[in-house]
Amino acid sequence: MHGVSEAIGEAMCGSTHPPRKSKYGAVKTEVDGNVFDSKKEAKRYLVLKAMLQAGEIRELELQPKFDLIVNGVKVGKYVADFQYYLKHPSSWEAVVEDCKGMKTPVYRLKKKIVEAIYGITILET
């Protein structure tokens, strides 16, 4: 049986598209027909997919969107990388997760607004 890192590498090598770098150096990566903004995000997806198959998480959602509403006016939106429910001994906890390499000022502001509006904590991986 392959190790996790070997399986991740094999799963990520199937893309026929040439890698594209972002202005921060991240390379878009395709896995299971999904295009991720970075190799880091694609690797995290494979870990979460394995956790889903093992029953450790449920309802894995890619790129969940959160409206940024201030005084009843939508002023923007925040797109996280993942949302899922994590299994605890007696319950399931909702988790919103973002894989970050570069924390821009705009990201930091949107994160604070989402956490305040929705009463959540965004997990950064």
SSE blueprint:
Elements: H1 4-12, E1 29-31, E2 34-36, H2 39-53, E3 57-62, E4 65-70, E5 73-79, E6 82-87, E7 92-98, H3 105-118, E8 122-124
Parallel strand pairs: 7-8
Antiparallel strand pairs: 1-2, 3-6, 4-5, 6-7
Helix pairs in contact: 1-2
Q: Could you report the average pLDDT, rounded to the nearest whole number?
A: 86
Helix segment tally = 3
- Beta percentage is 25-35%
- Please report the distance between the alpha carbons of the first and last residues: 27 Å
Q: Please bin the fraction of helical residues.
A: 25-40%
Rg, rounded, reads 16 Å
- Structural class by secondary-structure content: alpha+beta
Number of domains: 1
Note the main sheet.
4 strands, mixed
- Approximate shape: globular
Brief summary of the model shown:
The protein has helices at 4-12, 39-53, 105-118, and strands spanning 29-31, 34-36, 57-62, 65-70, 73-79, 82-87, 92-98, 122-124. The protein has 125 residues and is of the alpha+beta class.
Pick out its properties.
alpha+beta, 4-stranded mixed sheet
Give your account of this protein's structure.
- The chain is α+β, with helices and mostly antiparallel strands and about 120 residues long.
- The chain has one domain.
- About 30% of the residues lie in helices and about 35% in strands.
- The chain is built from three helices and eight strands; from the N terminus they run H-E-E-H-E-E-E-E-E-H-E.
- A four-stranded mixed β-sheet has the order 3-6-7-8, with helices on one face. A two-stranded antiparallel ribbon has the order 1-2.
- The chain starts with a helix and ends with a strand.
